[in-house]
Amino acid sequence: MVRQTDLVIIGVSAGLALGILISCLIFFGIRWCKKRSAHLRLSANESSVTTLPIRTNGLGTSTDFSASLNSSIATSRSESIKKSSHFSWSPQNKDRFASASGILKYSYKEIQKSTQNFTTTLGQGSFGTVYKATMPTGEVVAVKVLAPNSKQGEKEFHTEVFLLGRLHHRNLVNLVGYCVDKGQRILVYQYMSNGSLANLLYGEEKGLSWDERLQIVLDISHGIEYLHEGAIPPVIHRDLKSANILLDHSMRAKVADFGLSKEEIFDGRNSGLKGTYGYMDPAYISTSKLTTQSDIYSFGIIVFELITAIHPHQNLMEYVNLAAMDHDGIDEILDKKLVGKCNLEEVRQLAKIGHKCLHKSPKKRPSIGEVSQFISRIKQRRQRRLTEDNLSFASNNFSRAVSRLEDRQVELSRMSTISLTETV
Ligand SMILES: Nc1ncnc2c1ncn2[C@@H]1O[C@H](COP(=O)(O)OP(=O)(O)OP(=O)(O)O)[C@@H](O)[C@H]1O
């Protein structure tokens, strides 16, 4: 016969087991629900972002623009996926592509390892510290770690990831990944080995050639053209400046920091004055009305930085206004490193574009598409002139060689006549 105490023990044990089972079911049930709702939220975000259209026509005559636009959007995502050879599309790895258009999501540990425990500092910005990192694929990237005291909130950080994730162009510094882990927020960008335009203009370096400057200003205008005329809704950078233009290994320029700490989707809302002193459109300062034309103003300032190597904080505008009084006024404020090494007519043409961009009235400033066309024309004319110069140099050389040959022939025939006379 079963004793009464045994019955009690069996009853208590069964009760306990049942209790544990029910608690487990509740615990896992809650976790599943949480995961599911997070997943649904993410999917909703993804679809809302990936369906944001990118305009591919009506971009003026900027020749390679729409092609590069289409291909850059289509290929950069799949390339970044393909490039990660260590990475396979398995259900566990699905999380890596949680962001809008497939930019990679990294763990804090991965970032820590790739930056050798955050010892490879590239620089310091208002957002936080930037480190050089080598990813497991061998790809070198720049990693921006949001400072813990940064005003940039969680929500804005995610907006940036979703916004930058959909913007891809050869003249923008692309966002290739991000990390939200262990209370840290990190952005992973393409690495730009030649640093910022500001460093190249104002640093100790030997200086940029006129050819390089023309290519840089055209690259910048193409980057802005994509933001203003390629993206829907248009994206206003709001902080264009030489410090935010980065250069890659072949000195091609890319616009950086777009939207990092600025609300930039054009929605007509007034979200407070944002930008950098010296680059900010005076019309925007006085009216608080934000349009793409404010970026054109800042671009105009960069044009004159490239011509003069005078920083806007060193009275650049005063020099520029004085120079505007004469046809050749700009010659007086030309960067010393360019004197005698550039075509002054081209400098004046570029300065003319710069002046148009700085027009007091935003409506009278050219669109970025027009700016790109003006600069392209200067480059094309330059190219033609250089080719003609080369041809005429080659033909001069040829005529000199021919005349030397003729002289030689005369000399030879003269010598043979002399030797004949001597024999006779
Ligand atoms: N993608 C990159 N590749 C290489 N270097 C970079 C990259 N991004 C930033 N840097 C370097 O890191 C430094 C800090 O950059 P960051 O963009 O954070 O600040 P900033 O633009 O100089 O200033 P702010 O954030 O105040 O506008 C700069 O000197 C820049 O040269």
Written account of the structure:
This protein has 424 residues and is α+β, with helices and mostly antiparallel strands. Among the domains are: 104-190, Phosphorylase Kinase, domain 1; 195-381, Transferase(Phosphotransferase), domain 1 (Orthogonal Bundle), CATH 1.10.510.10. Helices cover 51% and strands 9% of the residues. It has 12 helices and 8 strands. The protein has helices spanning 4-50, 65-83, 108-114, 154-166, 197-202, 210-230, 282-287, 292-308, 316-323, 329-332, 344-357, 368-423, and strands spanning 104-105, 121-124, 128-134, 140-146, 175-181, 184-190, 245-247, 253-255. It has a 6-stranded mixed β-sheet, with helices on both faces. Strands 7-8 form a two-stranded antiparallel sheet. Strand 3 (128-134) and strand 4 form a beta hairpin. Helix 6 (210-230) packs antiparallel against helix 8 and helix 8 (292-308) runs antiparallel to helix 11. The longest helix has 56 residues, at 368-423. Mean pLDDT is 78; it is low at 35-94 and 260-268. Adenosine-5'-triphosphate binds at residues 122-127, 130, 142, 144, 173, 189-192, 195-196, 243-244, 246, 256-257. This is Calcium/calmodulin-regulated receptor-like kinase 2. Pfam families: PK_Tyr_Ser-Thr. Residues 116-375 form the Protein kinase domain. One of its GO terms (molecular function) is ATP binding. The chain crosses the membrane at residues 7-30.
